[in-house]
């Protein structure tokens, strides 16, 4: 049936497939789908070369050099994740990273990437290095239609790749968005940090600039030296050559109280007099909070602001929100990793917010004011923005009135334009593993308590027809013990997944409508994708699989890591077609 549709409609349906690997598998099924999907498959490409993934990236470079007229014109977005044939992802990274949180000496163990010295003599690895050095520069220079670059330079990739790519990108005139993230080596002595760039690209039409430092066991002390050495020269160079910048993101990766001052002076000296006024979207992280009140003064036309404070106190946010109000700046997008009552005062003064995301409150109290702030937000403030909100994310640290429940169900349901919703659920009524023996789970034995997973899906079905992504997680139960809090969260997350799996059971007729929601809404539990997949059998049986698609899918080896079995292609296209029909008629 799908193949009987016009080419234009087939292209639109195929464009609804999110994962690149799924698009590739669909493309291989028949020649017609192959032709329809070619522009979609080639519009985004990635270079992710490491020991266990040599061929895809090297084959892409070879194709760009030797068949550039076939491939290069379609490429609009380039991801550069890894350029190191010797290294490979450390299978013990997650365990070591957890240990390093408790023992400072273990920071040297925390490596996301490792290598084997024997590979220096491995013929396949040696050949891959030679091929990479030969093809990288000429391949990148063929991408004349390239508009967006997302590049993560890791210390393992060596500095020659840094210089080569910077020089290659200088030959491309159409780049409008440039995102550069770096993971410096933790053990490099602080006194030797210097400007690592000998060549920088000359982007004259840049609209989006993002520069960030990513941690991999790096101490805050090392980042205080490496972050400015990487961020400042690249930022000042690019700002001095563009007049059209609207989005700026700068993050040092630092979470402690000792952070560098935000480089207002460097930005002013590098840019022309109108550039700061043209910036409407600002995202900062790991800078001194003392500069927050000056943000509205230097960026008078802000419509979007994202601030990452880390472990520092959020008291400095009061000055920021006072300054925003004083300068009559009404943000349409607010993303903060802290919650304060000053934020409530600010967002209660106007309407029209489109994106609202915050973590907190990160404290809990039995006193009435804790519940009062939640009641104020859901009962009074959220309604001011219900006609404009497309993304809402409220992530309280502890279980209480701020979590999703029946008392705020109606308020959230009124935000009918939501496309993204992130909440933390109270545990009452959620399935709990009987082997999970903690005293505070006794409250869950009351079977009359509604299952909030079901309640949430029912609300989405009734009130949120435009929702595309749902993120669910568990708060901590109390602050008495980190270990018990973590164990509590794991138990509730397992309960959430069990509830979702029950929705997928075709034998439970009362869940039929909820199953429909899972077909058109992507659901994530604690950052992991819960994938509802109809297997297409004659008895219409359903199955659920937990597919790990971490938010790091845009970095490292995550992108394109999933697979779509050929036998499920038909059912996947049916689901996509159903979702499009819902949006057109719903």
From TrEMBL:
Gene3D superfamilies: Ribonuclease Inhibitor (3.80.10.10). It comes from the Eukaryota. InterPro entries: LRR_dom_sf. This is F-box domain-containing protein. The lineage of its organism: Eukaryota, Fungi, Dikarya, Basidiomycota, Agaricomycotina.
């Amino acid at each position: 049936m799908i193949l009987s549709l016009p080419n234009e409609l087939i292209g639109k349906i195929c464009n609804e497939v999110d994962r690149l690997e799924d698009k590739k598998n669909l493309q291989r099924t028949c020649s017609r789908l192959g032709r329809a999907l070619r522009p979609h498959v080639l519009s985004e490409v990635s270079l992710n070369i490491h020991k266990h993934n040599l061929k895809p990236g090297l084959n892409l470079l070879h194709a760009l050099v030797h068949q550039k007229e076939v491939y290069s014109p379609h490429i609009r977005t380039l991801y550069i994740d890894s350029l190191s044939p010797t290294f490979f992802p450390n299978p013990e990274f997650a365990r070591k990273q957890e240990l390093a949180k408790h023992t400072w000496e273990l920071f040297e163990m925390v490596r996301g990437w490792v290598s084997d010295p024997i590979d220096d003599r491995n013929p396949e690895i040696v050949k891959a290095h030679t091929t990479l050095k030969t093809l990288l520069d000429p391949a990148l220079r063929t991408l004349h239609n390239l508009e967006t670059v997302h590049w993560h330079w890791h210390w393992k990739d060596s500095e020659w790749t840094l210089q080569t790519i910077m020089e290659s990108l200088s030959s491309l005139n159409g780049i409008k968005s440039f995102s550069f993230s770096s993971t410096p080596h933790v053990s490099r002595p602080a006194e030797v940090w210097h400007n690592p760039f000998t060549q920088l690209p000359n982007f004259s039409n840049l609209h989006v600039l993002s520069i960030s430092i990513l941690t991999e066991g790096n101490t805050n002390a090392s980042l205080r030296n490496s972050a400015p050495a990487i961020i400042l020269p690249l930022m000042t160079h690019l700002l001095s050559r563009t007049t059209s910048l609207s989005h700026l993101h700068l993050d040092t990766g630092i979470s402690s109280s000792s952070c560098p001052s935000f480089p207002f002076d460097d930005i002013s000296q590098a840019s022309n007099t109108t550039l700061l006024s043209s910036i409407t979207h600002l995202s900062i992280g790991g800078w001194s909070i003392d500069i927050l009140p000056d943000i509205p003064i230097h960026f008078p036309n802000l419509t979007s602001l994202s601030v990452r404070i880390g472990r520092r106190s959020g008291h400095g946010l009061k000055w920021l929100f006072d300054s925003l109000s004083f300068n009559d700046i009404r943000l349409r997008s607010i993303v903060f990793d802290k919650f304060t009552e000053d934020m409530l005062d600010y967002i209660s003064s106007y309407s029209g917010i489109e994106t609202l995301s915050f973590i907190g409150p990160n404290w809990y109290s039995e006193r009435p004011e804790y519940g009062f702030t939640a009641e104020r937000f859901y009962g009074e403030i959220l309604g001011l923005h219900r006609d404009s909100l497309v993304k809402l994310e409220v992530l309280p640290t502890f279980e209480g009135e701020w979590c999703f429940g029946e008392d705020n169900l109606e308020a959230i349901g009124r935000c009918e334009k939501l496309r993204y919703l992130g909440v933390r659920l109270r545990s009452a009524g959620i399935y709990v593993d009987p082997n999970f023996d903690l005293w505070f789970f006794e409250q869950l034995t009351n079977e009359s308590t509604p299952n909030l997973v079901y309640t949430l899906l029912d609300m989405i079905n009734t009130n949120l027809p435009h929702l595309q992504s749902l993120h669910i997680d568990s708060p901590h139960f109390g602050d008495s013990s980190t270990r018990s809090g973590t164990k509590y969260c794991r138990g509730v997350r397992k309960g959430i997944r069990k509830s979702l799996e029950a929705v997928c059971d075709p034998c439970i007729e009362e869940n039929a409508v909820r199953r429909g929601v899972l077909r058109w809404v992507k659901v994530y539990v604690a950052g992991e994708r819960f994938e509802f997949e109809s297997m297409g059998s004659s008895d219409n049986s359903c199955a659920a699989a937990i597919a790990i698609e971490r938010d790091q899918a845009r970095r490292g080896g995550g992108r394109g890591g999933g697979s779509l079995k050929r036998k499920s292609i038909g059912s996947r296209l049916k689901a996509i077609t159903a979702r499009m029909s819902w949006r057109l008629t719903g």
